[in-house]
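Much of our argument rests on the idea that a fold can be written as discrete symbols. In the encoding step, the backbone of a single protein was reduced to a row of integers, each denoting a local shape. We regard such an encoding as a compact summary of how the chain folds. The record that follows shows the chain in one-letter code together with its fold in token form:
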Amino acid sequence: MLSKSQIKYIQSLGQKKFRDEQGVFIAEGSKIVFELLTSQRAKITHLYGLKEWIEENKQHCYGINTEEITAGELKKISQLSTPRDVLVVVKKIKWHEEIAAPGRITLVLDGIQDPGNMGTIIRIADWFGITQIVCSRECADIYNPKVVQATMGSIARVRTEYTSLPDWLKKNNRFKIVATALEGRPVNTIKKMKEGIVVIGNESRGINPEIMALCNEKITVPRLGGAESLNAAVACGIILSHLTGNE
């Protein structure tokens, strides 16, 4: 049985302040928990699961502080409207190598504030083999439970760093920097990129003018219908599908 202090502690990890203080985050559901259990980077400190889940997956829980809980207890500690059998507390992921632009595509996010979009973009980056993302400090926290859930485990494979985008782009201005914009060149006319920087802007206001001024080229997803704009994650997926891979 979970104590009141345990419940309060796990609930507190829904807030950035406490995640930062403790250096941990939470993840829920079998799919993402299995991803983290098999990751060499993710370090799970505690696992809380329903009896049936633990019995079926005890071979995966070896060496992990595991506690059986009831459905009622899971509901109390879950950040989801419909709890999913298992919840883990995980140490924030440490990356020893620095983000470097040469020889790869780097995704840059300017003010992506919606947690669902943020997590989905990380997952999309992982799908297209992009292993590093540079974010403005206005972006959603990658350890927000909604972001973590939307990544579906990609959070352990894609390094994400928060920094001053103008400073970072100026340091890497020898590389091609393309920005997504409504008035840009159609992305299906652009050659594949082996290295370079792709900038995705805020869901409503787009890319900050200071950031846009540092970009070499504007690209867009051609509009054929009447929709005013595309969701940031959807646009990111379409653009990366054109820019990555072989000719």
Q: What stands out?
A: Strands lie at 24-28, 44-49, 65-68, 86-91, 105-109, 132-135, 159-162, 177-186, 196-200, 217-220.
